[in-house]
Design a protein that fits this description.
Layout (H helix, E strand, L loop, with lengths): L1 H19 L4 E10 L6 H11 L9 E7 L2 E4 L5 E3 L15 E5 L3 E9 L1
Parallel strand pairs: 1-2
Antiparallel strand pairs: 1-6, 3-4, 3-5
The chain binds zinc ion.
Length: 114
């Protein structure tokens, strides 16, 4: 499962940060996951639950922020929300746009217990 290996790398990052802060546990982990990141939110949640067992994140509350995908039309410069990368502009039906957000996958914040 794709999401499981992602969960493992997120946990690795979080544990590294926690160790740097000499923390015994991570209380809260907030993730930013974009709608275009290719990640299934539910699969990621399940993977995080399983993968945090016996780690510093075992008791952490995991929050996943779903970041909407926004694009800006190259033709009429309208900004609009997209479901997938090939969606056309709702104003001028133009096919070309710049992605403004929605591809992110990152650890936004981490609360540790020292
Ligand atoms: Zn347009």
């Amino acid at each position: 499962m794709h999401e499981f290996s992602i969960a493992l790398s997120i946990i690795e990052i979080a544990e590294d940060e926690a160790k740097k802060a000499n923390a015994n546990a991570v209380n809260e982990l907030v993730l930013d996951v974009g709608a275009l990141s290719g990640i299934e939110f539910e699969a990621l949640e399940t993977a995080m639950e399983m993968a945090t067992r016996n780690t510093l994140l075992e008791k952490a509350e995991i929050k996943i922020n779903k970041i909407k995908a926004l694009a800006k039309c190259n033709d009429c410069l309208a900004e609009f929300e997209i479901e997938n990368i090939f969606d056309s502009c709702p104003d001028c039906t133009g096919l070309f746009h710049e992605i403004l957000s929605g591809k992110e996958l990152k650890v936004k914040s981490l609360v540790v217990d020292v």
